[in-house]
Amino acid sequence: MLNRIAGARSAWMRGAAAGLAAALLTAGPAQAQSDQMAAISVPAQPGAIALGTGPLPGAKARESWHSQYNSVFVRNVTEATLTPFLPDPAKATGTAVVVAPGGGFTTLSLQNEGWDVAKALAARGVAAFVLKYRLNQTPADLAGYEKDQRERFSGTRPMPRPDPDRMMANLQPQIADARAAFALIRRRAGEWKVDPNRIGMVGFSAGAMLTMTTALHGEDAKPAFIGNIYGPLTPVTVPADAPPMFVALAADDPLFGNGGFGLIDSWRTAKRPVEFHLFEQGGHGFGMYPKPTTSTGWFDEFARWMAMHGWVKPAA
């Protein structure tokens, strides 16, 4: 796969690599909420399905969970899973969405950017599937993780800019997990009442990076449409069959708010459908958190966009 995409390396990957260093620190809501991390026991995950992509090579730390910003996070995921959130059969539209939470590839904001998003989609008749993809290893204990993150962003530790080739190589486990997720949904489409041609993907921050990479280089995992929620917006080479794209970003996002809008221009230049919402305030990581900022309305806008394209109406 690396050989196939080497010739199509884009500025998006370079911009994503630059933003990834900052995104490694999970950003929370701008409103006042406790950012204190607290270890929690593994929560029930009814319906989670192992994707069979194998354990993360060389992993030593075991999967662990913690709370932060009144939400649930998971670290050191070594085996990927997919959790279905299916709509009431009476409301099912046949459309499905793979939901990729963010967290800088070291943690996953599984509640705010995963389960809560999936529940909201299912309520609108869309089958949603939360992808718990494999993550880069961090210290096993929570105190060690917090110390590692503080040092990473204190300016005392060198922060080398990852080159595109290394970044793509490091994303191979996550790309494999996304491909496996699409394959599983299509394999069980009849059981889950899903149209195999109406499977989209929405990602947040690092999950948006994975969504974009899946859309552009995922081979057999091509989404029918994509949502990029506060991911990098640097330019990309857009193929002729690029999927319709929805983008939401806050202007005061400390990671990607000042990086320009090249991704939007790229889609428009290629004459591919794109909708872009730039909210005045919201910061990074707003997800489904209730906030006084207009960024809280991103999901309703996403749902309206899906309706405009006919994806929340039952397929003929």
TrEMBL record:
<dbReference type="InterPro" id="IPR029058">
    <property type="entry name" value="AB_hydrolase_fold"/>
</dbReference>
<feature type="domain" description="BD-FAE-like">
    <location>
        <begin position="172"/>
        <end position="220"/>
    </location>
</feature>
<keyword id="KW-0732">Signal</keyword>
<keyword id="KW-0378">Hydrolase</keyword>
<dbReference type="InterPro" id="IPR049492">
    <property type="entry name" value="BD-FAE-like_dom"/>
</dbReference>
<dbReference type="GO" id="GO:0016787">
    <property type="term" value="F:hydrolase activity"/>
</dbReference>
<dbReference type="Pfam" id="PF20434">
    <property type="entry name" value="BD-FAE"/>
</dbReference>
<feature type="signal peptide">
    <location>
        <begin position="1"/>
        <end position="32"/>
    </location>
</feature>
<dbReference type="InterPro" id="IPR050300">
    <property type="entry name" value="GDXG_lipolytic_enzyme"/>
</dbReference>
<protein>
    <submittedName>
        <fullName>Acetyl esterase/lipase</fullName>
    </submittedName>
</protein>
